[in-house]
Amino acid sequence: MQRLLKEMEAVTGDSADLARCITEIDTHFGYWWCYQPASHHPGEAIEAMIHIAKAVADAEARNSGKTYVVGSAPFPESALYVFAADHPDSRNAAINIIFDCPAGGRPVRRREPQRTRH
Q1: Mind listing the pLDDT tens digit for each residue in 85-112?
Q2: pTM: predicted TM-score of the whole model, two decimal places
Q3: What is the span of the domain harbouring residue 99?
Q4: Is the pLDDT of residue 83 over 90?
Q5: Scanning 27, 50, 86, 101, which has the fewest C-beta atoms within 10 Å of its C-beta?
Q6: Residue 56 CA to chain centroid, in angstroms?
Q7: HSE-up of residue 34 (Cα within 13 Å, Cβ side)
Q8: What total of structural domains would you count in the chain?
């Protein structure tokens, strides 16, 4: 995880700037995490944050015993999300699920980003 954070800091240039772009909340459904890039973050920042989001989701899945997902929403503002698969956001049509992170397994990339359907 430290390597990923250093990589992200190198891309954005400032760890405090990065921290302002991340929101973390403990919800009734579990941990919820969101990264919304600042307008001056380069495109590489999203790519680096996908790796960080996957590591966060994998760790939360192992610690909680629940499946976590990594999702993205391109509009109206770009954002990456991590939340439990049973969270209401998993049914949000604007969020495309990129990775499933089961509690007892390794993260699995979806072939194409898809919305979770229930």
Answers
A1: 999 999 998 999 999 999 998 999 987 6
A2: 0.79
A3: 2-114
A4: yes
A5: 27
A6: 7
A7: 13
A8: 1
The structure tokens 């979770």 sit at 116
Task: From residue 49, give the alpha-carbon distance in Å to each of 7, 88, 104, 117.
Answer: 9, 23, 23, 25
Tell me the CA end-to-end span of the chain in Å, nearest whole number. Answer: 32
Closest to 30 measured CA to CA, from 85, 108, 79: 85
Both structure tokens of 108:
């699995």
Per DSSP, the residues of 32-93 read EEEE---TTS-HHHHHHHHHHHHHHHHHHHHHHSS-EEEEEE-SSS-EEEEEETTSGGGG-T
Return the amino acid letter for 63: N
Of 102, 40, 23, 35, nearest to 69 by C-alpha is 102
Q: Tokens 């499933």 identify what position? A: 100
